[in-house]
C-alpha cells in the first residue's frame, strides 16, 4: 500500500469536508479543489490548490468545464508501476484520493416549480467522470462519495501509515459506481417522463436502487432466505426508517404484516387509532379516546385472528396501552411512532415481542411511492391507493343477527 499524497476534493454535499481536509493536511496530503469547495477550505484556513491553477486552464462556460483535463484524469487513471513515464512526460501528478459527490439533481427536480432549464443545469458531467475513473482505478486510488465514509478512511490512514487498504478501496469503488448509477437513472427517468406533448406517468426504463441488504430471520417460509433493502433516504414514519427497540430479529412476514398495519393506521389522524393485522389483512381497526381504548375495541373485533398478529398505533404508545396488550394477547410485532418509557418497561415482560419505532409522520402518513410486485419475467408497477377514507360513505353489504353479545355483524364496503 502506498500512502496518499494528493487528494482532489470537489463536493456538492459539504458535510464534514473542512474537518476531513484538515486531517488530510495533518497526514501531509496536498489538496486540489474547485470552485465553492476550494473557497470553503480556504475560509477554514487550509492550504488548497485550485484545479485551474494546477491544469493551467481556466474554468469556462459558467463552471461547466473545469475538471475535464488530462492532468486531472491522467492523475486519477494512471496505473502505478506502468504509466509513470507517460505521466512524467506530460507533467501529470498522481491523484490518490478523489472525494466527489454530485449535483443534487433529484432534490432539484423534486422541488415544486422546477423548470427544465434548472433541471438540466443540475446534470453533473465532470463529477461522474472523476468518480468513475477513480473507481475503475481503485487498485491505486481511493474514491469517496459519501461523507459518512470520511471517518473510516481517516481511521484506515491512521492505522496504515497514510494508506487505505485494498478491501476498503474496493468497497468504496462499488459504492461509487452505485452512486453514479442512481444519478444517471434519476436523470433518465426525469427526461423520459417529461415529453412536452404527452408526459408519461412512468419512465421508459425503470431503475431501482436500495441499500443495505440487511439479513432477516427467514423468508416467507423458514427454508427461504430474505433481506431488507432500504431507500437511500427512507422517510420518517416508514417501516424502513423504523428503529427496533426490542425483540427477536424480524422475518419477511413480520415486515409484510407490519407494513400493512402501519399503512392502515396512518389513514387515521383525528383520534388515537389501533389496527391489528394477521396475514397482511386487518382483523381489527378502531378509534378511541386513548390508545388503550382503541386497542381494546380493535381486539374485540376478532379476538381469534388477533392472536399472533401485528399491532400498529398512530400515537406514541403509553404504559396503559402496553399493559393492555401484554395482558391480553400474544403479539409478534408492535409498531408505532414511538414508545414511552412506561410502555417499554411494560413490554420488557415480553422480551421476544418486536417493538418498531418509526418516528412521527405527516398527516395521512408519509408518501409511499410506487408499489412494485415481481412477476415471472417482469415487474408490475402502480401508483399507491391514496383515495381518501370517508367513513360516511361506507355501507353494510351483508348483515347477520345474533353476533357477539347480541350485536349484529357484517361486511363493510365502500
Structure description:
With 414 residues, the chain is of the alpha/beta class. Helix content is 35%, strand content 19%. The chain has helices at residues 17-26, 35-43, 51-55, 70-77, 84-89, 105-110, 116-121, 126-136, 150-159, 166-192, 252-265, 291-301, 303-306, 319-328, 341-347; strands at 6-10, 30-33, 49-50, 97-100, 142-144, 211-215, 227-230, 243-246, 273-278, 281-287, 309-313, 331-336, 354-357, 371-375, 378-382, 395-400, 409-413. The termini are far apart.
Largest sheet: 6 strands, mixed
Low-pLDDT regions: 401-410
Query: Percent helix among the residues?
Result: 25-40%
Which structural category do the helix and sheet elements fall into? alpha/beta
Query: How many strands in all?
Result: 17
β-strand percent reads 15-25%
Mean pLDDT: 87
What is the 3D shape?
A: elongated
| Straight-line distance between termini | 67 Å
Spatially, the strands of the biggest sheet line up as: 8-13-12-11-9-10
Determine Rg (CA atoms, Å). Answer: 27 Å
User: Helix count, per DSSP?
Assistant: 15
